[in-house]
Amino acid sequence: MTLRKACTVAGAAARSGAGIQADLKTFQELGVYGFTAITAINAKHPSKEQGLFIQPLDAIEAQLLIMNEQNDIDALKTGMLFSKEIIELVANWLASTSIQNIVVDPVMFGKFGSPLLDFDAMETLKTKLIPQATIITPNMPEATYLLGGQKINSIEDLQDAARDLMQLGSKYVLVKGGRLQGPAVDILYDGNKMYKLEAPRIDTIHTNGAGCSYSAAITAELAKGKPMEEAVLNAKKFVTAGIKRFIPFEYAPGMIDHRAYKVYGEDEVQFNEI
Ligand SMILES: Nc1ncnc2c1ncn2[C@@H]1O[C@H](COP(=O)(O)OP(=O)(O)OP(=O)(O)O)[C@@H](O)[C@H]1O
Ligand SMILES: Cc1ncc(COP(=O)(O)O)c(N)n1
């Protein structure tokens, strides 16, 4: 069987549940080979002022150049890109490749609010990168920022946001409703059909890496040739299983268990056209 290849262009997260580490673990669990290009190191700690180390542009460019040697990358995701300059670099590079499946996770904040995107980078994200995306995967605050402040407080608001976000030019939009009350509902839209994904809400604060791993799982499934609807459904099952078997940290909120889907094979997600 051909080994499928996925790539992530994102930040490294020192607690290792999110960012590049989450992406690689997810790729491995879902049976694809993972390549990485690291844009930043996120080592935020309450006792330290400086914890975010953005990589120099030439270091990022050098990693992207290495990717050019792999002319058979099946799917790619972007995560934390941080600055206007990095987004421009990645967007220009992507335009020069023939990669077909591009997942843009418009990472803006860490789980507990630390900024992972410069404010003046928003326009570049919207005009240079998102139009090249096969799918974008904003959570509720990210969707709100992309839409210039549009409030999202309900499943109907998620649906409206999905419709409005299509204007930015991606082929699919997935708006994640992780912050709503009740079941964990996400909305997938292709400009024509709209789908609701629903999983039971797990009572935990240990969800570090849920968003990154979700977009990485979609990337892995697309790399394997799955159609988008199936890729998103499998990815939601993967992330739900991971949240259910969360790994608590002693002094900080913990992270999802990337092994859970393979070990326990949970299957509790409903997928319906609405
Ligand atoms: N407690 C939970 N139980 C089950 N699923 C959840 C829970 N929290 C989030 N999810 C799901 O996890 C996935 C990641 O979504 P989420 O909205 O948390 O993204 P995120 O980018 O991690 O966002 P945020 O940083 O706002 O928490 C989504 O499918 C969401 O529905
Ligand atoms: C480098 C990096 N990238 C992304 C996130 C957010 O991760 P998530 O929303 O999945 O918890 C993070 N904390 N650090």
Measured between the Cα atoms of the first and last residue, the distance is 36 Å
- CATH homology superfamily: Ribokinase
Strand content: 15-25%
Number of domains: 1
The structure class reads alpha/beta
Largest sheet: 10 strands, mixed
Task: Please tell me what the overall shape is.
Answer: globular
User: Overall mean pLDDT score?
Assistant: 95
Helix and strand sequence: EHEEHEHEHEHHEEEHHHE
Q: Could you explain the architecture of this structure?
A:
- The structure is a single chain.
- With 274 residues, this protein is an alpha/beta fold.
- It has a single domain, classed as UDP-N-acetylmuramoyl-L-alanine:D-glutamate ligase, CATH 3.40.1190.20.
- 35% of the residues lie in helices and 19% in strands.
- The protein is built from nine helices and ten strands.
- It has a ten-stranded mixed beta sheet with strand order 3-2-1-4-5-6-7-8-9-10, with helices on both faces.
- A hairpin with a 4-residue loop joins strand 8 and strand 9.
- The longest helix is centred in the C-terminal third of the chain and has 17 residues, at 228-244.
- The protein is globular, with a radius of gyration of 17 Å.
- The protein starts with a strand and ends with a strand.
- 47% of the residues are buried.
- Residues 16-247 form the Pyridoxamine kinase/Phosphomethylpyrimidine kinase domain.
Descriptive key words:
binds adenosine-5'-triphosphate; 10-stranded mixed β-sheet; UDP-N-acetylmuramoyl-L-alanine:D-glutamate ligase; binds (4-amino-2-methylpyrimidin-5-yl)methyl dihydrogen phosphate; globular; alpha/beta; 19% strand; 274 residues
